[in-house]
Amino acid sequence: MSDAIKDVWEKIDAGSDFVVELTSELVKIPSVNPKFQVDAELNREPEVQDRVQKQLEEDGFSTERWDVFPDRPNVTGEWEGTDEKSLILCGHIDVVPVGDSSAWARDPFGGQIEEGRVWGRGAVDMKAGVAACMAAALAIRQAGVTLEGRLAIHSVVDEEAGGFGAMDLVKNKRLARRAIIAEPTWGNVVPAEGGLSWVRVTIFGKQAHAGWRFNSLWPQPHTEGRIEPGVNAIELANRFLNALRDFEASRCRDNWHPLTPAGLATINPGVIRGGAGMGEDGNPAIMTNAAMISDVVTIDLDYKFMPDENFEDVKSEFEDFVGHFAATDPWMRENPPKILWDLFDLNFPPMNTPIDHPLTLSIANRATEVQAKPPEIKGFEAVTDAAHYAGAGVDPVVYGPSGDGFHGNNECVDINSLIETTKVIAAAVIDNCGTR
Question: Using an 8 Å Cβ cutoff, are 272 and 184 in contact?
C-alpha cells in the first residue's frame, strides 16, 4: 500500500462519522423525482444540491450548477489535473416515492442512525454513494495528497426516470477517461451492464362496427352489398405478442456474457393500448368503445441487450423479425407495423469495461483489502447512469455500499459498508489519478 493511501485511510477511519452524518443529512432532505410524485415538500432536489455544492466548495472544488429541468439542477465539482489520468465520481440525488409510509418502521425521511445503519428513502439508492464520493475527496485533501489527474464529482438528477441528468451532463460538460458510479453494488465490482431502449411497435388494423364482426370471421353466402370487413388490430397484436415471446426466447438463448445472468436479453411488453383512431400522441384516440373494431394498437417494450452487443445490430435484428412477422399476413404485408426506437428519448448504451481494465482491477484489489466480504466482479442486471458515460467513450465501473429496502420499504445503508466504500473509492482515485 502506498503511503498516500495509508494516510488517506487513516483520515477516513479517524473521521468516519463524517460520511455517516452526511448521508443522514442528505436523506433528511426529501428529493422525490417529480416525474413520479408532485409535492413541493417532497421535490426538494435544489436543497440537496445546495448541501452537495457547499461541501464541494469547502473541499476546494471549482463548481458548476445548472438546471436540467426547471428547478432541478445538476452540480459538478472539479480539481484541476491532467486529462490523461482524469476520473469522475458520479451519483444521483433523486429518489423514488416512499409509497405507503405506514409500512415503514421509521420516518422515511428521518435519516436515523440506528442499529449500524442509516435509514430513509434514498439512503442506499444512492445518497450514501454521493456522500462516499465527497468523503473520499475530503480525506484525500486532509491527508495533503495532490493528484496528478483531474478529479470531478458529478451530482445529477433524474436517474430514476431515465438518466436525463447524466445525459445532459455528458452532452454539455467536460468528461474524463474513467468514472466510478457509486450505486449500491453490495461491495461487488460491476464493470458491465446491458443496454436498454424503450421501443414502441404500432400495429394497424381497419376500423369497423363490431356488429358486422362476422364479416371478418366467417365466409358469407352472399357478396352483393356486403359491408367491407374490418381488421382487428388487437387480434393482430395478440399474434404479434406470441411471436415476440418466441423471438425473445431465441435472443435469451443465443446471447451470453460471462458477467451477466443467463437470459438477460429480455424484451418486456410493459404497456399496451388498443382502440380506434390515431391520436396526436401516437396512441389510439378512442379506448372506451368496445363496439368498434380496433384499428390501432401500440405496444411499448423494455428492450434489453447484452454488454457486448452493438445497438445498430440489435435494431436491425428486431426490425427483421417484425418484417418477417408482417410478411405472414396479407393485410400486414400492405400495412406493416411501425417501429419507434428510443421512446420518450430513453436509451441506455451498454457498458462493457474489461475485467482487466486498470480501474476494474484497482477497485477490486482495494475492496479485497478493506471489505469484510471479498468482492465479486460481475455484471449488473438493470441499468445505471454508467451507461451514458460509456456511450460517450468514458470507461466506467459501478461500485458502492450494501443496504436494504431498495425501491421498497425501510430503506437503509449499512454503515460499515459505507465506510469501506469510502476507503475503496479514495484508494481508487489515487490509483487512477496518480499523485505529484
Answer: no
Whether 428 and 359 have beta carbons less than 8 Å apart is answered as yes
Q: What is the DSSP string of 162-198?
A: TSHHHHHHHHHS---SEEEE----TT-EEEEE-EEEE
Please answer whether residues 147 and 430 qualify as being in contact, where contact means their C-beta atoms are separated by less than 8 angstroms.
yes
What CATH number has the domain bearing residue 109? 3.40.630.10
Contact predicate 11/139, CB 8 Å: yes
State the residue range of the domain holding 28: 3-193+350-433
Q: What mean pLDDT is predicted for residues 419-434?
A: 98
Tell me the pLDDT tens digit for each residue of 307-327.
999 999 999 999 999 999 999
3-state secondary structure of 76: strand
pTM score: 0.93
Same domain assignment for residues 199 and 334: yes
Of residues 45, 78, 94, 431, which has the active-site annotation?
94
Q: Is 94 a catalytic residue?
A: yes
Indicate which residue of 159, 168, 309, 385 is catalytic.
159
Are 380 and 433 in contact, with CB atoms under 8 Å apart? no
Q: Is 160 a catalytic residue?
A: no
Q: What's the number of domains the chain is made of?
A: 2
The mean pLDDT value of the chain amounts to 96
pLDDT, average across residues 287-296: 96
| Paired sense of beta strands 113-114 and 117-119, if any | antiparallel
String of DSSP letters for 32-75: B-TTT---TTTB-HHHHHHHHHHHHHHTT-EEEEEEEETTEEEE
Helical ranges in 255-357 per DSSP H: 311-326, 330-334
Strand partners, 238: none
Predicted pLDDT at 219:
72
Residues 316 and 414 reside in one and the same domain: no
Please report, for the domain that includes residue 299, its CATH number: 3.30.70.360
What pLDDT, on the 0 to 100 scale, is given for residue 228? 83
Those residues with Cβ within 8 angstroms of residue 367's Cβ, 6 or more apart along the chain or in another chain: 187, 189, 374, 375, 399, 420, 424
| Element spanning 418, H or E | helix 415-433
Residues 324 and 216 in one domain: yes
Query: Do 245 and 123 belong together in one domain?
Result: no
Q: Tell me the C-alpha to C-alpha distance, in Å, between residue 156 and each of 132, 163, 176.
A: 15, 9, 16
Which cell is 411 given? 430503506
Shared-domain flag, residues 294 and 384: no
